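=== RUN LOG ===
request id: a7f3
mode: sequence -> structure
chains: 1
length: 376
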Amino acid sequence: MKIAHFIRRDFLTVNPYSGINAIKNKLLEHLAIVVQDDDGIFHGVLTTNDLAHNPKTLIIDCLTIKELIDGEDCVEETLFKMDTAKTDVLPVGKNGKFVGLVFKNELYKYISDYNLELENTIKERTSALEEAIATKDLMFSIIAHDLKSPFNVILGFTGLLKDKLKSMDFKKSEKLISGMNTQARNTYNLLEDLLTWARDNRNTIAYNPIFCNISTICDAVVSQVKDTAQMKDITINSFHSLEVYSFADKNMVEVILRNLIVNAIKFTENHGKIEIYSMPVGEFIEVTVSDNGIGIEEEVKSKLFNSDYNESKQGTANEKGSGLGLVICKRFVETHQGKIWIENKAEKGTTLKFTLPIYKEELHKQAEIEVVKSIQ
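=== RESULT ===
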C-alpha cells in the first residue's frame, strides 16, 4: 500500500526563528514538529530524537534537512528509509512540495493489523476447506455404508447361482434372478438418490426441512432393504400414526432409518423380527426401531454414538460394518434438534429411538406470516 493513505496533515508548526527554548518545550509535548517560516516555506522536521542528540544545534540541523519522501512510496520502502535515517518520522512531499508527515508506529500498526487480518482470512479459509473435506468424507461414508447391504444381497444371489445353478430347478433359478434384478434396480435408484444428494451438498450438507410423512419414508426404506432381511428370514413390521407428520429433511431421515434398520437386520438372527413405529410425544415425533437380536453390551452403549469409537462388531451372519452408522445418525438427528438413544430391553434385543420435530400447520402458517411481515 502507498503511504499516501497514512499522511498526517494535522501537525504542529513552529517558526525556525522562535528560539531554541520555545522549540524544545514544544518538542517535549509532541513527537515531532514541522519547521516553517512566515512565508510557509518548509525547512524540515524536528523529533524528540533530535532534541536528545543535538540540543545545541537544533535549528541549524533542521535547516539542513530538506529531503521529502514521495507520497507514492509503499509502506515497505518508507520503513526502510526510516531505518536508514534512524528516525520515527519522515516528511512527505508531492511534486517537491511538503504536504504532511508519516509516522513509523502507524505504519507498523497497519502492517500488524494487515498481517492479523491475513492470518484470520487464512484460518477461515483453512477451516472452510477442512469442513468441505470433512463433508466430502462424510458423504463418501454415507454412500459406502448405505450401499454395502444391498450389494451383499446381490453378491449372495449371484454366489448361490454360481455354485448351484446346475442342480437348481428352473423356477428357483428364475426366482433368484428376479430377486437379483429387483435388488439391482433398488440399489441403482438408491445410488442415484445418494449421488444427487451429494451433488446438491458439495461443500456442506444442507438442512432442508419439508412436510414429511414418516410412514411413507419408512416404507420406502424397508422396500430398499427387504431382500437383505429375507436372506435371514427376518420379518419387518412397520406401523405409524397416520395423523402425525414431521417437519424434517427427507434425505437425512432416509439415511437415519436406513442405518438403524440395516443395523437391526445385521444383529438379528435368522427368523427374527424387527418392528418400526412412530408416535407423537409433545413437540416431537418419537420413532422406534426395535429388534429381538443379540443386543448390545451395557459398557458399549455409551460409546456407539462417539466418532472416536469406530469399532464395529460382526453381525449374526458375519456381516462387517464401518462403525460410522450411528455417528451419522446422531449428527443428522441433532441437526433436527432431536435426540437419539438406546433403551434397555428386559428381553433379548435392542431398541433405538430418535425424535424429529412435529409438523404443526398452525405454527408454520404463523411462521410464514412473520416472514412476509419482515419482507414488507
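=== NOTES ===
Residues 104-164 form the longest helix (61 residues).
The chain has two domains: 3-109, 207-376.
=== END ===
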